[in-house]
């Protein structure tokens, strides 16, 4: 087996953490949506999600101020909207209108959910100790919604530099964990 040195700037594509999601926030009557792929599950119950949101992103200050957001999980049918949302600023554009996304009232938070997404997670910020240094928020999922009509969702996974894979084959292996 011949291995060679790999550029550190491309490691992200090897460890890609999960599906690309659309994060929604709202403040002072204005809702926004951003594309995010830097997130990780941290705990099962209560469900905690860690995520990085750039301080240059319009959603950063809104999340910091309101301490709530929704994580909306799109499928491959929304791939063009996901990329489009990620390539423009919510300071200049109403992304819901531009990309044909339908905001829906959430049950527990002020940020909207996205109707077209396969699943929606209503979240509150649980811990901000890593925000100032790393832009890393720890979110607690307080309510979750899923479209039960979609049996095998094909989620998008970012590999870097505009390259995505689509969730594919499912393996079911026996587990002794309870």
TrEMBL record:
Signal peptide (UniProt feature, chain positions): none
GO molecular function, one term: oxidoreductase activity
Broad class of enzyme this protein falls into: oxidoreductase
EC numbers: 1.5.1.-
Repeat among keywords: no
Transmembrane segments: none
Protein name: Flavin reductase family protein
Species per Swiss-Prot/TrEMBL record: Thiobacillus sedimenti
Organism phylogeny: Bacteria, Pseudomonadati, Pseudomonadota, Betaproteobacteria, Nitrosomonadales
């Amino acid at each position: 087996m011949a291995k060679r040195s790999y550029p550190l700037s491309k490691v992200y594509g090897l460890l890609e953490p999960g599906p690309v999601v659309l994060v929604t926030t709202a403040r002072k009557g204005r809702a926004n949506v951003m594309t995010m792929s830097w997130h990780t599950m941290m705990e099962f119950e209560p469900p905690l999600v860690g995520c990085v949101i750039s301080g240059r992103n319009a959603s950063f200050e809104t999340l910091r101020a309101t301490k709530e957001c929704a994580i909306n999980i799109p499928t491959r049918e929304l791939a063009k909207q996901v990329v489009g949302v990620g390539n423009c600023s919510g300071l200049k554009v109403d992304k819901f209108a531009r990309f044909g996304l339908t905001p829906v009232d959430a049950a527990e938070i002020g940020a909207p959910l996205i109707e077209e997404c396969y699943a929606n997670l209503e979240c509150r910020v649980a811990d901000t100790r890593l925000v100032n240094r790393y832009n890393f928020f720890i979110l607690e999922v307080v309510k979750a919604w899923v479209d039960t009509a979609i049996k095998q969702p094909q989620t998008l996974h970012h590999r870097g530099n505009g390259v995505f894979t689509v969730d594919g084959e499912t393996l079911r292996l026996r587990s002794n964990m309870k």
